[in-house]
Amino acid sequence: MPGILYLIPNTLGQSEAGSEQSPATALAAIIPLEVQALTARLDYFIAENAKTTRAFLKLIDAAQSLAKPLQEIQIAELNVNTASAALPALLAPILAGQDAGLISEAGVPAVADPGANLVRLAHAHGIQVRPLVGPSSLLLAVMSSGLNGQSFAFNGYLPTDAEQRGKRIKALELRSRQEQQTQLFIETPYRNSAFLEALAHACQAGTLICVATDLTLPSETIRTQTAAKWKAALAAGKHPDFHKKPTVFLFLAQ
């Protein structure tokens, strides 16, 4: 009988050194204890990033004690460079009866994450898939933005070419206006400022733009205001510090 593929949520980042909370307390505020306990008993993980997964498992170990020493736990990588032909081998231990955990580099796996292809293949092989509760930056951003939470779309990364990016923003703004649909984006953190500049200049003045940074962390900032106000704030240098910080961008055309 096949094992179970657990979809394990990771944290959205680590608190900076000097935090008043212990790592275990900080983890418990983000990852439910039941999820921690289940994670602690697994010894096979499929991870977007082995290094960040080991860091996460060290936090779990401090709070719950891993069933095996970390060095004895198998971690296989699955990222954007993993070929489709390599996916069956990742599922082989599960088909042989071993439970496994799928872990993203941050947040929930299989959403804006290469793990989705593995989950699809798991279903095709009759493997039970169990999603576990944890932080999703996309849902947290929608929840806290004040924008339309009934209809929203995640667009991932936009083109880096300025002209193509501007055209794409305008096309999505038109869709947002016609369908009253919130549009979500992410960007490589060091490009955050340039991306917000592009949004503020390409969108019409009354379009609402939300910038949600460092969600769930002590440094979290969330601000929603019109494109015109963002444009003025950027010109004056009065905007949240999101340089090289994980950020979700959203807008809703009025």
Describe the structure.
With 254 residues, this protein is α/β, with parallel strands linked by helices. The chain has 2 domains: 4-131, Cobalt-precorrin-4 Transmethylase, domain 1, CATH 3.40.1010; 137-252, Tetrapyrrole methylase, C-terminal domain (Methyltransferase, Cobalt-precorrin-4 Transmethylase, Domain 2). 39% of the residues lie in helices and 19% in strands. The chain has 9 helices and 10 strands. It has helices spanning 23-30, 33-41, 50-64, 87-95, 115-124, 137-145, 162-179, 192-202, 227-236; strands at residues 4-8, 44-47, 74-77, 100-103, 128-131, 152-154, 182-186, 208-213, 221-226, 247-252. The strands form 2 sheets. The protein has a 5-stranded parallel beta sheet with strand order 3-2-4-1-5, covered by helices on one side. Strands 6-7-10-8-9 form a 5-stranded mixed beta sheet, with helices on both faces. Helix 3 links the parallel strand 2 (44-47) and strand 3. Helix 1 crosses helix 3 (50-64), helix 4 packs across helix 5 and helix 8 (192-202) packs across helix 9. The termini are far apart. The model has no long low-confidence stretch (mean pLDDT 94).
